Amino acid sequence: MTTPDAAPPLPGFSLGAQGAEGRIWYGEYLGRPAVAKERFSKAYRHRKLDEMLTKQRTVAEARAFHRMGDIGVRAPKVYLTDVASGLVVMERLPGVTARQAIIEAHAAGDAARVEAVARAIGDMVARVHAAGFVHGDLTTSNMIVLAPEGGGEAAGGGSGAAAAAAGEAAAAAEAPPGGSASGAPRLALIDFGLSQRAKASQLLEERGVDLYVMERAFTSTHATCPEAFDATMEAYAGSGAWSAAKGPASAQSRDGTLSHLQRVRARGRKRMAFG
Asked: Keyword Transcription, does the record have it (predicted)?
């Protein structure tokens, strides 16, 4: 692993965050606000294996961003992919994380806003699952409540949930991607580093684990408003994405997924109890 003070991958970019898998940089690309995700090498892995995994994961993530648009899920547009260096440069979306939006709405006593964001999350995740994909890291930090077009700072800029909420009613009349004429929050999904198209034989298991990861994230991050996850799951089960799907992604498959979630929960409780 390289050091945190490594040079930025592109001129003018500044380090935003660093995790176990890579770094996030913020800057401008061709005059547009952008995010650069850089995967760095792992010293503990064999060099050839490290290069192979970096290339595979970089390509898979870039493809996932493109595929989301095909199923009606808003995701950042990819500006540049450098497979050799493990770099993906993408659009920096205007808005705030769903985590921040829920926390601030709950603190302000705005239960309606909490429910609206939670239900938008449930519908978005249902569309991902109904199309046969799993995300792999469904936390509210990986979901963006979009600001109205032409307003708000890019996510990560600290604009506050109020900036994302302001003007949503006017923007909803135009029903942009991810929005609706009813004034529901417009959401986007980010960070597809662990995403995959699940095999039909593993679809229920993969979806169940995806939902369990999301439930655990809600439990830890939004423990003071458990109703948020309830609203998310209600919207997930009632999403119109299921009625439009066929075969392994049908409504019957949705019911199987919800049943499988119970099994995953049971395994999780057993693991916590016995290690």
From this structure: no
